[in-house]
């Protein structure tokens, strides 16, 4: 018998940690958004798996190394774990269309709004005997491409007004998320967990 799970897919920069306006590749640059850790802890307690889905094209652009990005992700998990909010999986996409690179061009379908990272996560869970219930899973992010990625993957999209806050752009392009929240904490407490 397969076990069904629900997942909270989360963008990283501008959703969990503050978007600095540039690529984040050192621990010092990573500052959690207020109550983001609390929000994740609440979602975990409610049974959601936490999966980070992040475009990190600073790698293809030569601004950050794979090692730096992975170290920042490790540090993020350390910070979140203090509040029992550690993530379960983390995927990042090094590819950028303007900076072709022999090592990273194969990740073209992973760059949001494409759904490669989400599909990879779902496949990885499946290989462990866990089936992701897409209709019960959410994608939360601060950009239109997050909303679009969630929609394309058959997930429930929520936009947060932290980070880039692309609410107006979403309306203009008719990519309408299911809910718009001031931040991740409100997305979780006022919508995702309030639905039950
Ligand atoms: Mg973001």
SSE topology:
Layout: E1 3-10, H1 36-45, E2 48-55, H2 66-81, E3 89-93, H3 116-126, E4 130-132, E5 138-141, H4 144-152, E6 156-160, H5 167-172, E7 179-181, H6 184-192
Please give a structural write-up:
About 45% of the residues are buried. This protein is α/β, with parallel strands linked by helices and about 200 residues long. It has helices at about 35-45, 65-80, 115-125, 145-150, 165-170, 185-190, and strands spanning about 5-10, 50-55, 90-95, 130, 140, 155-160, 180. The longest helix is centred in the middle third of the chain and has 16 residues, at about 65-80. Helix 1 packs parallel to helix 6 (about 185-190). The chain has six helices and seven strands, in the order βαβαβαββαβαβα. The protein has one domain: HAD superfamily/HAD-like (Rossmann fold, 3-Layer(aba) Sandwich), CATH 3.40.50.1000. Strands 1, 2, 3, 4, 5, 6 and 7 form a seven-stranded parallel sheet that branches. Helices cover about 30% and strands about 20% of the residues. Magnesium ion (MG) binds near residues 11, 14 and 15. Magnesium ion binds near residues 13, 14, 15, 19 and 141.
Q: Summarize this, please?
A:
With 196 residues, this protein is of the alpha/beta class. The protein contains six helices and seven strands; from the N terminus they run βαβαβαββαβαβα.
Quick one: overall form?
globular
Structural class: alpha/beta
Bound molecules: magnesium ion
Note the gap between the termini: 25 Å
């Amino acid at each position: 018998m397969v076990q069904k799970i629900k997942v909270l897919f989360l963008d990283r920069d501008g959703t969990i940690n503050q978007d600095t306006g540039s690529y984040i590749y050192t621990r010092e640059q990573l500052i959690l958004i207020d109550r983001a850790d609390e929000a994740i802890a609440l979602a975990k307690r409610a049974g959601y798996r936490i999966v980070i889905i992040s475009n990190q094209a600073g790698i293809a652009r030569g601004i950050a190394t794979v090692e730096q990005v992975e170290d920042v992700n490790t540090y993020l998990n350390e910070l979140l774990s203090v509040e029992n909010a550690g993530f379960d999986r983390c995927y990042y996409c090094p590819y950028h269309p303007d900076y072709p690179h022999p090592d990273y061009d194969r990740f073209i379908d992973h760059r949001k709004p494409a759904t490669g990272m989400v599909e990879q996560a779902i496949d990885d869970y499946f290989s462990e005997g866990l089936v992701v219930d897409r209709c019960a899973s959410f994608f939360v992010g601060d950009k239109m491409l997050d909303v679009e990625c969630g929609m394309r993957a058959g997930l429930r999209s929520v936009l947060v007004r932290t980070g880039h806050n692309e609410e107006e752009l979403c309306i203009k392009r008719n990519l309408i998320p299911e809910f718009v929240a001031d931040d991740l904490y409100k997305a979780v407490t006022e919508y995702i967990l309030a639905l039950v």
